[in-house]
Amino acid sequence: MVQLYNLHPFGSQQVVPCKQEPAHFCCGQDELFVACAAASCGVEVFALRDQGRCEPLGSFATLGPVLRMAHSRTGDYVVTIEEKNRATFLRAYTNWRCMSAGSSRVCVRMVGHKMEESYSETLKEQMSIVEMPLSDPPLCISCCPVSGNLLVGCKNKLVMFCLKYLVINQNLTVLDFERSLILHIDNIIPAEVAFCARHIAVTTELDVLILKLELLQQGADNTGQCAHSASTLEEPVDRGIKDEGPSTHTLQFESDEFVICQKPVELLGEESKLCEIPITLESTGLATEGTEYFQVRYLLFRRFTPDQSPFGFCEETKLHSLQLLPVYQTGSSVTAHGETENKRELLSLFCFFSLPHVGYLYSVGKLVELISTYQYSEKSEQAVLTPQFLHVITSENLQCFTVRCSAAAARDEDPYIDTTVKACPPVSLDVCTLRMQLFIGPRAICHFKNHVILLIKADTEDITERRKPTRRMLSRKADSIKSRKTPDSESGWNLYIVNTVSTIQLYREMVDYSRTYENVKTESCIHLLSEAHLLIRAAIMDPSFLKPDEKEELLTAFRESCAFLGDCYSRFDTKDYHLALPYYRMSGLSMTEVLERLVSEGDETHKYERGFIFYLTHSLNEDLNEELSQESATKVLQIFYLTEPVQLPHILCSPCMRNVCPLTAMKYLQKIEKIMPSVVLTLTKASMALKMGDLMMYEHEMDSYKETILACGFIGQPKLLRQHKEGIVIPTEFAIHLKETQPGLLVAATVALYENSKIELEEADTFFKTLCNNSENTIPQLLVDFWEALLVVCSQEEVLQELLLRVTSQYVWRISKRQFPETKPLKTTEDLINSCNHFGLIFPWVTFIMSVGSPSDKDYPEDISKLQSILCSQSINVTSALPFLEPLSEDGNVGLTIHVLCSTRLGKYEDSLDLLLKKCPDAVVLYAQHELKDDNRAMWWNKLLPELCKRTRLTGNYSPVHISSLKETLSVVAMELELRDFLNVLPEDGTAAFFLPHLLHCSQRKPLT
Length: 1009
Hints:
alpha+beta
């Protein structure tokens, strides 16, 4: 479907002062080349200036009449197909600018021949004509805009010439060509070819084939292998065709009464291999190091039939205007010749071709797909595609259609463009006709920057008939056809440069035009504004012809177009209402500015559409730096009260609503509570009561629910406790008040937030540090309380170990620095042991050691006992905890217990026994009774008994502790061992009387055998 609008993309027009009748023309970098009609053999060159002014630069002669002509921006050469004596020739004109400057020197040479002998030092002052002989007559040509390479279409094959730069001497570099590749395509007579970035498009009268040459491999000594790989790529297809005999893709049986042809076909991507058109690659260049070898990948095949068009006769149905349009990413680089130029990196590629009444635009870059179909009002003569428009000429009109290239290229550049942050009108948007400008007899067209070059050839009789409105309206087409067939009629011609208006000017007109649809056809309004947006986007993506001030003007218009689209999706009830959010974001408008655009003062009955509410909801729920004024905030309250009252508590928690009047907010909340009460609403009311300074109302609201329900209520709206400003966590007034009055509720709420993925562990750390006004390296007790509470509910092993190390580090720091917590801990050691298995019961021997310790070790009972409790459990990874425990010396009882606990957990029981015997022998037996069990039972007699005997002997009767421990140990050993084994473990130099009671006990229990 084509939308019709009456806009004015065409401005003034200038006449090109051609001396001879034009036959063909093309554009260069800033020049227009016009090939004269058959009577003359030459090309006139004109310079294109601002406002379409055209100045003659000169001319150069050709061998014969020009049949085809093209200019390559890369290399700045003109290539022609010329005819002489019924033979066609392919020629390239390089250094043609010297002819325009008045020089008459011309050098004619064959392609690839040595040039050093042919040129003197004055080579720069002469034009060079390179003749490229071919075994078959050339039919069509195309220059690659990226590389400057040349593609020539001949019957059953395509020939590629590579552009080369040859250095003649230090001051002279000239262009040359090398025939490097031939694509043999059976049963194809190309009507047109297009070549861009190794993509090749070729059309016959009714077939379209698009290929890509993919790099196979490189090397100087493997030409045969590469050629074989390329030629056998399509071997199954070749075999199938040979079995069937003649190729069926052009097979037609004709008679006087009917024509039989194949059905129309469209094959995309990999399916296009099924087109049954075999392609064989023949590498003809000299194999050198770095030579490129290719294989063919099919991208698209489409076949049309003569009877597809509802207009005209079968023989008139032919394809025309084949074109590959590249869209680039821009950058800057230095060329091989030392010149700085814009490096054009290909982003997207599009292919256009047309039937007389229908045009087709395909994307053939990253994805092969049909983008748009163009229906013409009458039979077309020719069309030219640009990044912004499609210009089509018919027998009576110059028509301007919009295109979708910028929309597709934007998605190639950014696949995630369609989000809540960015947006772009869809590729599937209906195309529209901006203008149908009446011309008399347009025959050919080309495009250059912001100019359309148009060749007009009209018969004199036809012009006379067009001056009769009544007759023209009755049978305009019939008369024109009849007049052209009059043999005696004289033809008139002109070559026009039609200046297209600036992008900004046309954009302004499209915006003004869209306002006529605002209250009538909302979809048309959105469509036209989308067209204006794509127009600006296309100009921004192709900045090669823009001046710096023009680019800034375009960026301003781009933001403005986003704002207009945001307004549309906010004001109108459309299915794509959610697009209001990304378009407003791209516009750069603040929320206050958007409210001013859409909200009328004092209009309380206004209906707000979904798009506006969607934008407001998302904007207010995000951590923006903008703060609404009290008036704007009150208006927002009113809007949500009328449209989505359930959202009101959440909206009030937004950082943007900091300036809201709490009394007004409370009135709205009280109204909502009667309809839909909730915990979040109650907490929001409590927050507003705090802002009002009404503590009685605050306490009344907080007493409405139990503390556990209130803690879970914060999950529904975490911003009641913390907000973000410029990426920094900011505790709210509510959180500050809870810290002073209900720290347990605050910690429980934060734990609930973490458990429900509403806050991260690091964010919680920052929250509590900021809340308690602590420095970055100081840990407040409230944060330790949070860690301890989280240990109770945590189930993830990785997080669990992190929390255990954190609390361990903090306990050790306080004990070693003799630092008291600034607030009373919320949980005691006993509380943690009872509620969390990560805190274990403290072992008896640890308690005993602490009981005989110095008074200074008892100043921090909670931190010490919590640390010991953690090490008495099996949860913490002791190896990871050792670095944190280093500040505690083993000289003190606290350090001693910690070191022994760690050695025991690591299985170093001998080290633990040695340390206890050295530091606290009173606890040795208690330790052994608790730890030396099962597999470690043998340490009683293998380690402990010998050590005690040794130490008792050294100290004599002066160590009652050792003697007492030895007796306890002997009792255990006597109970565990057989009499013979017991005798074996006794020391040989001991006093027998000392051991007799234990020997007697052992012998009575187990008789000697």
